[in-house]
Amino acid sequence: MQVESRRALAVMDVGVCLCERFRFERSVLFLRTMARFDVIFSARTAQIPFIKHLVYFLNAMSITCFFQEDISPVDNKSWQTQWFNVAEDCVKIVCLLCKDYPKSEPCCDEFATARKKKKHLVIWMDEPSVIETHDKNDWNGEVRMYATNGGQGIMRPADVETNVEVYKAFLRTAAEGIYKGVKGSAWTGGAIVSRTTNAR
Question: Does the pLDDT of residue 16 top 60, yes or no?
Fold first, then answer.
């Protein structure tokens, strides 16, 4: 009888712990959902490692960030709904334009939203010429046009993959440019990319 009582109490303790944990996780989710982020990222999944490094720099500058890994699987809203909810209240939307970006309809929708709200900051992960010549489809027109017109943004250096110091400098430059954009200064992370000059 005593063994059964102890077992019942143990089960109750576990149940209480699980309930408390669930309540805590929901509270954290609620706070994160209600929070206003400074920056949200629009990028292909392959760019997440770079974004993580960039977020590290931005967090050190007290800039709050939201990207793919912040999408909550517990939330009953779709990942796109969660993204657009955050985008509505954030200060800047940082778009990492790469050769595969125009292939993604969700990415192109995010870019169009960023442009419409005048919140866009662009990091060129590939040359604009690569992006502007991408095959046309029903959703990538605005991205391709931005590349064709030499839209403003910071250009990733060519040797960033092989030179650690260049990579670090690129991260710092991008973080400083985003910080200035969030704080209301002019975007100075990179020169305006033209079709005749290499803005590295």
Answer: no
**Tokens describing residue 169:** 């400098």
d(CA 101, CA 132): 11
Would strands 39-42 and 65-66 be described as parallel, antiparallel, or unpaired? parallel
DSSP result, 124-189: ESS-HHHHHTSPP-SS-HHHHHHHHTT-B-EEPPTTTTT-HHHHHHHHHHHHHHHHHHHTT----S
Query: How much is the pTM?
Result: 0.74
Tell me which residue has tokens 């030499």.
150
Tens digit of each residue's pLDDT (9 = 90 or more) over 156-185 = 998 988 999 999 999 999 999 999 999 986
Helix or strand or coil: residue 75?
coil
Tokens 């990028």 belong to residue = 43
Only one residue has tokens 């690569």, namely 130
